[in-house]
Amino acid sequence: MASTVVVIDASARRVTIRTTPGMILSDILQEACGKLGADSSRYGLKHKNKKLDLSNPIRLSGLSAGAKLELVQLSRSPSVVSVALQLPEIEAHSPAGGRLVEKYPSSTTLWLILRNFESMAPHRNYTARAKTRTETGGTGAGRLYHEAPVLSIMGRELTSFTDLQKTLAQLGYNAGSVLLRLTFRLSDTPIEEAMEQIERYFKSVSGDEKAGSHATSMTMPESVPDTAAPAPADEDTDAKTPPEPNTPSDEEDRFTAELATQEDNKNSVEAEPAPSAVTGPGQRPISIFKPPESSTPQAARQAFNERDYEPTVAHAKLHQARLQGSGRNKTLPSDKELADREIAKAQRVADIKDIAIKIRFPDQSAVNATFTNLDTARSLYDLARGMMAAQGEPFLLNFRSARGPRNIPPDGTEKLISDLGMSGSTLVNFFWGEGASLEARAKPVMKENLLAQANEIEVPKISEIEAPEPVPKDTTTEKPKASEKGDGNGKMPKWFKGLGKK
Fold it and tell me: Do the Cβ atoms of 422 and 340 come closer than 8 Å?
């Protein structure tokens, strides 16, 4: 049954929208903003001073026929929405439960969300799938046609490529969480024509750098500038953009640098000496270290000074500066700031040419080796497998990433630096697999010829600091006892005796 609602803006202009029970409130907002000449992504709806959930249909919103809705302006800063992508059965074998979960700003488009989920693993393909189809009566291998992604949200299907360019805010999701169900539908468009149409669409949206960047990579937000264009100078950026209130103070940076200098001076004493390199499997230079003779770490057997653990004035000032910074109001980063962070992060990863990896075995022996940005997980497994005495036994390599412990896929093609996120000096732990024999677990992991070339980890001795002698107690300043006060006899003074008489 059709009905109507009235939408009123801040200038008291009103438009009447014809609705159905299954009509989504976000569609009402878009139709009203189209008639009033407003941008629907910047406005919301209120009814009796209560904000409406634009993702609900009319029958679930509690609105009566002829209800008057207020058009209110939303905050310019996008909010965070938790997005869960439910994969179809053919793709549900990779994540747990066939569901991917990530948080995005409400200004993110559905197409960008799919592209971002694709970029998390090299084997995922949700937007450029193709399937062979042979014409009726034809023979041969057939032609590849585009298998377009279809998203279902609250019983609502978004099938066309234009529908996938809608943002979460345009669909009514400005906060909370949303579930997207992904399916694929074979279209009548060949794959090469579909890719050309997608590229032409992004070029024709605005014709500026951000559309061209999205069309080429399709992995960055639409507000990302073209990476080929030179970045503006820092001086110009600082001159145009006022400093934000949550910027760390100079005082905090100064004390942070001071503490970092102190820590570097301490760590420089404890650095391991570089032993002579040994040629390992694959002609890779390696350094081998013997397992420790005692179960107690050497650091625990050295003397230390208790005063090293007492906070200094620099620590107190740094803590105070951090408390002041955390008490300031902070705004959510804009799309451009998020894009700049992603570009800076990608540039930092691209600048890493090689890393030092230390493989620690269960018997506490260790091997140091250098890997380049072209080495993959298979290269790391080949090195560990070539040094094992028990060939053929299953094992697993694990390291701690920024998100916690992470298993390295055996014989994987993921690159150690760009895909797995390794940087600097990385510690990789060796674990026996479930099918490893007890004999292999009890013996040393490395071969005897390699253990014969192992070096001991030399820990430089630090000169012991004598504890300060206790200060002797000064007996000359002792206070007199209570019995010694007054007249020296401990008796009640004469002037006190008359106070009790009436």
Answer: no
The string of DSSP codes covering 70-126 is EEEEPPSSPPEEEEEEEPPTTTTTSSGGGEEEEEEETT-BHHHHHHHHHHTSTT--S
Distance set, CA 56 to CA 171, 209, 268 (Å): 10, 36, 61
| Cα–Cα distance measured from residue 395 to residue 376, given in angstroms and rounded to the nearest whole number | 17
Angle at 60 between CA 57 and CA 61, to 5 degrees: 80
Q: Please give the distance of CA 374 from its chain centroid, rounded to a whole number.
A: 24
- Mean pLDDT in order along the chain per 10 residues (502 residues): 82 87 85 86 84 82 85 80 85 67 88 86 81 64 82 84 83 84 87 84 60 40 38 40 43 50 44 59 86 75 79 90 84 86 90 90 89 90 88 88 85 86 89 87 86 79 56 52 50 60 52
Decide the pairing of beta strands 43-47 and 99-105: unpaired
Radius of gyration, alpha carbons of the chain: 34
Q: Where are the beta strands (DSSP E) in 296-416?
A: 354-360, 366-372, 395-401, 404-408
DSSP state of 346: H
- Which pair of tokens denotes residue 71? 């058009």
Cα torsion angle, 178, 182, 187, 189, sign: positive
Distance between CA 342 and CA 219 in Å, rounded? 10
Helix (H/G/I), strand (E/B), else coil: 140 = coil
Characterise 137 by phi-psi region: left (phi > 0), alpha (psi -120 to 50), beta (else): left
Helix, strand and coil in the chain, % to nearest 5: 30, 25, 45
d(CA 58, CA 185): 29
Q: Supply the pLDDT for residue 215.
A: 39
DSSP SS3 for 356: strand
Query: How many other C-beta atoms can be found within 10 angstroms of the C-beta atom of residue 381?
Result: 18
Question: Which residue(s) pair with 147 in the sheet?
Answer: 129, 186
Q: Within 10 Å of residue 11's Cβ, how many Cβ atoms?
A: 8
Distance CA 498, CA 494 (A): 8
- Do strands 68-73 and 3-8 pair parallel, antiparallel, or not at all (unpaired)? parallel
Contact 117, 85 (CB under 8 A): yes
Report the run of H or E that residue 189 belongs to, with start and end.
strand 177-190
Cα 259 to its chain centre, rounded Å, is 26
Handedness of CA 317, 318, 321, 327 (dihedral sign): negative
pLDDT confidence of residue 224 = 37
